[in-house]
Amino acid sequence: MSDNTVATDLVAAVWPAAHPGEDPVLYGHVELQPRGAFEARSLQTFRLVYTVGRYGLDDTGSIRVVFRFVGDGGAPQMTDPAGYDYVTAQASTGARISLEYSGTGHQRPYFKALTARLHGGYLSEGDTITITFGDTAGGSPGFRLQTFCESGFEFKVLADVCAVGHYVPLPETPAIAIVPGPPKVWRAVLPSLRRPGEPFHLGLKAEDAWGNPSDRAAGRFRLEPTLPVDGLPGEVDFALGSRAVTLDGLRLHDEGTLFVRVLDGNTCVAEAGPLVCRDGVHSGYWGDLHGQSGESIGINTAREYFDFARDMAFLDVTSHQANDFQVNNAFWSLLNDLTAQYHQDGRFVTFPGYEWSGNTSVGGDRNVFFREEGRQIHRSSHALLPDRSDLATDSPNARQLFQDLAGEDCVVYAHVGGRYADIRFAHDGRLETAMEIHSAWGTFEWLLTDGFPLGHRSGVVCNSDGHKGRPGASYPGAAKFGAYGGLTCFLTDDLSRDGIFDCLRRRHTYGTTGCRLHLDVRARMAGGGTLFDRDPNVFPDTASKPVSEVMMGDIVRTGDGSVDLVIEVSAGAPIERIEVRNGSQVLETLRPYDAGDLGPRVRVVWSGAEYRGRGRQTSWKGSATFAGATVDRIAKINAWNHERLLEKTGPHTVEWDALTTGNFGGFDAWLDEGDGGRLDIATNHGDLSLDLAEVGLEDQVMEAGGLERRVRVFRLPVENPHRAMARTVAVPLKPEGDNPIWVCVTTEDGFQAWSSPIFLFR
């Protein structure tokens, strides 16, 4: 086994209890050539040689090479010798070997399985089977590696030497390292809100074509801030092999909005910000609290997970959330050790926790975060855990989970992953303070809005739910995860476990689809109101106080018939729109421009999902033809998989083959328009035809069934310089029930942000 692979005693993989003999060495051994480090998404050829052991290999016996579910490398195929990922197998005796591949051909976490079965004879000790991945003899360009880095990518080999259908792992697992490619883009990262004199850090990295921090970048860069920054050097050296640089202990003493340009000579290679410096109650700290590593369904080690979150995603807060039925007691102990080791008040806050992974019928996915280490894990089941000694501690449904956690110092999120949370089945407002409405699995506003008519008062969070070892910067790669992972901004005066927990319990959070914009939403009441410290529906004796202004997440009673909603946004990209909402209703759409500013730039976006469950991915195949107009150029929006089609294919035409999972993608087209132009959109989910004269400020919509599945078309200014907006909107309040007042911000580069609702009632 490679020293970089995940320790086998920490992985809850269940193997047959019965097997041919005492020593697995007797079943044979395996070698892989070449070994070493290989660039992500490169084309390679590997030869895996299985040497038969003392038991031999019986007729119809087989070996199986299994890979982790999360990998997005090429799928082995045996039909096209000139195609990608062509795989062959030969026995040293000339006996026939058949190959069969399935993406769900084995058990979790090694779902992907290539089975090589012997026919018409037997093999004896010392005979071999050679499997060639990416056999180029027939013209194949090779085997495509996954898009993300992994220090120990395993070719795990199992053997069924007696042809009984039991596959037993061989003791040695050959592995390679998958490493970053050359740098394609530089990223500079700042927090979004600090008070004068408070410390912050600036992060700098270069990413390859698939979002991996590259160790092949180097240079000396000049740093140009828009405000004086104590501790910021004039230049920074980025050493070859470093993957990322963090400048700590920076401070602003004057209020204002900071951007930092990173210059290579006179060329700006990256810009960090905005960081709003303001004297107030809160600062904004960024976290991704939901992801997994290779000890469960993801890749890389848990230690590498925490290192990435702190040092390459530049997060302030994180947690690890492995599926509970895959967390053995050794791994639970290690996770608690790691969170204790990595936690540092004022710099990097970690929480011990896990994902309660019950089926949707018994409540669906929940995230559990403990205030302290050493707490009892209450699993949904022991599905992959041979150790049954703590079976009695399980919480087999979400209602039982909330009962079992009632005395714990913890908070719970509901989320949508492979399973989705059913908040109608179970919800406890004392513990479940937030709904995760965006992750790498997609966008799920419905998880929050479903709770409004039920009287739930939950905050908004977004996380990656990443399985690819990149918490805080989780790209979907070439897999069916269709979205970039989300982030949560915690508004608190204290970067500590107490401060973050207090923030979550007050719902003082907003979430984004991965950007770090500044968002401030407040409600002002002319007649005042009563602010509750906790939700009075579940804490009847909670403290309260009179107020005239409240912030996102607050719960307040007022006699006013309307409130003034004060919205402030500062972003790193131009703002496309802000939706002001009361519950599920959009009350008003704000833009930094009006119809008179529009020009010959048309935006086409597709969005939505098939349904709420695991198979929610919607495939979009389509074209847009601009008859009577020429497409000068296009810009892609949320086109995360570079291998999928989204291109200008003619002077009047754009074509695409895209994927959405509740989120959206699309393009902008800059047109040379004549009179009488027309737009014809044809997709596998419906068609839309419009005169270009009809395309203006408001969306033209083609509904396409499914779950909020649609195509939208509208115009934008040729150039939109507005990266900041401040507006005050009068919002009428309904006399009965809650008024969950919140906003959704969309920026031109395709990112979104949602404030936690202010829950106003009369």
Q: Could you tell me the number of beta strands?
A: 51
Instruction: Give the termini distance in whole angstroms.
Output: 65 Å
Alpha-beta content class? mainly beta
Number of helices: 5
Low-pLDDT runs of 5+ residues are none
Indicate how many domains the architecture comprises.
5
Descriptive overview:
- By secondary structure, the chain is mainly β.
- The protein has 5 domains: 172 residues, Immunoglobulins (Immunoglobulin-like); 93 residues, Immunoglobulin-like, CATH 2.60.40.10; 234 residues, Metal-dependent hydrolases (TIM Barrel); 111 residues, Immunoglobulin-like (Sandwich); 119 residues, Immunoglobulin-like (Sandwich), CATH 2.60.40.
- The protein contains 5 helices and 51 strands.
- It has a 15-stranded mixed β-sheet that branches.
- β23, α1 and β24 form a beta-alpha-beta unit.
- 49% of the residues are buried.
- The mean pLDDT is 97.
Summarize the entry for a quick read.
With 762 residues, the protein is mostly beta strands. The strands form 9 sheets. It has a 15-stranded mixed sheet that branches.
List keywords for this structure.
762 residues, mainly beta, Immunoglobulin-like, 15-stranded mixed beta sheet, eight-stranded antiparallel beta sheet
